[in-house]
Design a protein that fits this description.
The protein is α/β, with parallel strands linked by helices. It contains 22 helices and 30 strands. The termini are far apart. It binds adenosine-5'-monophosphate-propyl ester.
Length: 663
């Protein structure tokens, strides 16, 4: 794994099979091989070293308490303030004039925010939230696009010990309401609207819709003006940010919170229709987010210009836009919009404009860039880049090579980082300057992390055999539970290998003959579309919510760009079928059939989010089921991907596929 040579793959001519770090990179890298040795010889001592990179108000008395497994406690008795660690201490250390955020708005406006300015903004927000009566432990929902105030809001919550629940601004009012109710949020922070491909789209209106109807726990809605779009106003409940936070005092004294104080809840899709509120706490989370950002991205404070293209609505935005980078005094780009607004050059223009050195994105975007063609990045000077990262889904070797050659000028190391909302921070990844990487492989658990690949019985597998990925040791940034549902927490992650006490990640993986680790994707009913997790059950429930649909089955089928795409099979209600719409729906040339399918796609967008919109919907007379009534998704995936059908012997009616094929 650490060989210094570049091997040539004998079957692929001159294409290197591995890419070794070059001497200059090795010489200045943050990480070295000794990290692995230190962690292996004294794992808890190693994590204590990493925790010491932070400023603690009160030291811990014990590194790990695992006696209440699977709920871990890290850094017992320690106290720290996350916002102080991400902002104040850099100003106190004399770096107040360093830019923290180069913010680039979609319409072309921009703002540079220094650490001193960020401190003043976060303090104002903290003072105003205190004035509103918010107290440590209260929950705040943040439903915002990528504007600086979103980051300020997260940090203000962290500063006050308020537990934030960021809800992706692309989610529907129904999805927002579900999350607000589950966490019993007292406050929602939002914007009037958001810029999307040159147009202002309403956002506060979605909050109004979410809060309409049954009374909710929400007392106030704090609104940042972003687009000037018209908004309806509920007096007494709604508050403008510029009338309140902006006028608050820029001085605020941060207090330390217990290392296990809840920092945030982030909802993610599981295998049922109800999203899981993944709970993260303070000390262990920040320790690992900070450690991984420092070593995996080889980040050098004051020199690098770092850009993670995620949205704060996902865990990548939490750990690698907010907490990891800011704890390490990063100067980073935050971009509000889409990569093709106003045209496909946008990301490359931003890289040139700010001299971005570290760029972290998802394979879907790399494949989209490939589709647009290399002439686009080739038109720009991307020589500032020195490291590239990938996250969210498996990166196919072809996309990996293209990323390195075309974006990275055949120079930059690539870190393919595996982790999850639940793990809080990166778990499996190469270390730049140490690891000789292989296109498509996540390579190895980071120092301090332990993983195994096992079969259904928990037996460790030999290299070359695919199995289930488990994490066999606790780690500092691990989830501490599912909000309001600790039974589900145990069932989902711990019951499968309860005797061994392992965390089951839900992913398949294998080790190759060199012992390097490859992630193979989900083994459960969770789809991964453009790096976003969506459960089949959620989409099915949105489809059956349409009056015309009696039953639905959804699968993730492989897609050249988005990794997976959603393919739905629906049975119409007798009424709808009898009305003649079924007949016409079967005939794709007929507008009425297409209209019904379009209506169903729109329903899913509206109910969940445009990211959950199915690529295809097939109207079928029957679904393949086992005798116990379970839908055989594996077979539907075969149909969706145009493959020969797998074993159909357990079906009640193996002939069902003749009718599905006709559908
Ligand atoms: O299936 C794995 C995939 O994304 C899942 C986690 O999704 P989420 O909680 O939304 O977090 C995404 C960002 C960390 C995993 O179970 N995944 C994530 N990173 C990779 C990956 N699959 C392959 N390679 C990766 N690098």
């Amino acid at each position: 794994m650490t060989s210094a040579t570049t091997d040539l793959d004998s079957t692929a001519g001159s294409v290197p099979a591995t890419y070794s770090p070059d001497a200059a990179f090795i010489a200045s890298a943050n990480a070295d091989g000794a990290l692995y040795e230190r962690a292996a010889s004294d794992q808890l001592g190693f994590w204590a070293d990493q925790a010491r990179r932070l400023q603690w108000d009160q030291p811990w008395t014990q590194v790990l308490d695992w006696s209440d497994a699977p709920v871990a406690k890290w850094f017992i008795d320690g106290k720290l303030n996350v916002a102080y660690n991400c902002v104040d201490r850099h100003v106190i250390d004399g770096h107040g004039e360093q830019v923290a955020i180069h913010w680039e708005g979609e319409p072309g406006d921009s703002r540079d925010i220094t650490y001193s300015e960020l401190l003043a903004e976060v303090s104002r927000a903290a003072n105003y939230l205190t004035e509103l009566g918010m107290r440590a432990g209260d929950r705040v929902a943040i439903y915002m696009p990528m504007v600086p105030e979103a980051i300020v809001s997260m940090l203000a919550c962290a500063r006050l010990g308020l537990t934030h629940s960021v809800v992706f601004a692309g989610f529907s009012p129904t999805a927002l309401r579900q999350r607000v109710d589950d966490a019993e949020a007292r406050l929602v922070i939002t914007t009037d609207g958001q810029w999307r491909r040159g147009a202002a789209a309403p956002l506060k209106a979605a909050v109004d819709e979410a809060l309409d109807g049954a009374p909710s726990s929400v007392e106030h809605v704090l609104v940042v003006r972003r687009t000037n779009i018209d908004v309806l106003w509920t007096e007494g409940r709604d508050l403008w940010w510029h009338d309140t936070v902006t006028d608050a005092s820029p001085d605020h004294q941060a207090q330390g919170f217990d290392a296990e104080h809840p920092l945030f809840i982030l909802y993610t899709s599981g295998t049922t229709g109800k999203p899981k509120g993944i709970l993260h706490t303070t000390g262990g989370y920040l320790t690992q987010a900070s450690y991984t950002h420092h070593n995996v991205f080889d980040h050098k404070a004051g020199h690098d210009v770092y850009w993670c293209t995620a949205d704060i609505g996902w865990v990548t935005g939490h750990s690698y836009i907010v907490y990891g980078p800011l704890s390490n005094r990063a100067t980073q780009v935050v971009y509000e919009g889409t990569p093709n607004s106003p045209d496909e050059h946008r990301h490359f223009e931003i890289i040139e404009k700010y001299g971005v050195t570290i760029y972290y994105t998802a394979p879907t975007l790399v494949r989209t860039f490939m589709k647009w063609g290399r002439q686009i990045p080739d038109a720009h000077n991307l020589s500032s880049l020195r490291l590239l990262g990938s996250v969210g889904e498996p990166i196919n070797p072809e996309a990996w090579r293209w990323y390195r050659d075309v974006i990275g000028g055949n120079r930059t190391p690539i870190v393919d980082t595996w982790w999850q909302t639940e793990t809080g921070a990166i778990m499996i990844s190469p270390l730049p300057g140490v690891t000789a990487t292989k296109p498509g492989a996540a390579m190895a658990p980071l120092p301090g992390i332990s993983a195994k690949i096992v079969d259904d019985e928990g037996t460790e597998l030999d290299s070359g055999r695919s199995g289930l990925l488990v994490l066999d040791q606790p780690w500092p940034s691990m989830l501490r539970g599912i909000w309001n549902d600790m039974d589900r927490f145990r069932e989902t992650y711990w019951d499968r290998f309860a005797a061994a006490g392992w965390y089951f990640a839900g992913d398949g993986a294998k080790l190759d003959t060199d012992g390097d680790l490859w992630i193979l994707g989900r083994v459960d009913d969770v789809m991964n579309v453009s790096g976003h997790r969506i459960s089949t059950a959620e989409v099915e429930s949105a489809l059956v919510g349409h009056a015309g649909v009696a039953e639905a089955a959804v699968v993730g089928a492989s897609d050249d760009t988005t990794g997976q795409a959603i393919v739905a099979f629906v049975i119409l209600t007798a009424d709808t079928a009898a009305s003649g719409r079924l007949q016409v729906a079967r005939n794709s040339a007929d507008n009425t059939g297409a209209a019904l399918i379009a209506e169903l796609k729109a329903e899913v967008s509206r109910e969940i989010s445009p990211i959950a919109r199915p690529r295809e919907i097939h109207i079928v007379p029957e679904l393949p089921k086992t005798r116990s009534g379970k839908i055989m998704r594996r077979l539907l995936r075969d149909v969706a991907e145009g493959r020969e059908l797998g074993d159909t012997s357990t079906l009640v009616d193996p002939k069902v596929f003749e009718t599905i094929a006709r559908g």
